[in-house]
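quick one before i forget lol
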Amino acid sequence: MSQQKSPKKNNFKNAAMLSGIAFEMGIIIFLAVKGGKWLDVHYQNEKNIFTVIATLLGVAISIWVVLQQLKRIKY
């Protein structure tokens, strides 16, 4: 007989993974915005185009990271 993990352990592991997703998304987007603002100041850009581009890129990356983690969750 093969040993299976109890449902409680899987549920706890899944809950821990899901709770960390929000923090990871926030950190990725925050760093992207800060990087975009720095680029706008560094290149003296008045229209904040680097901030907009970096923010959209940060959101896209964070969604990709979330999707990769959701694939690993076992039900």
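fyi The mean pLDDT is 88.
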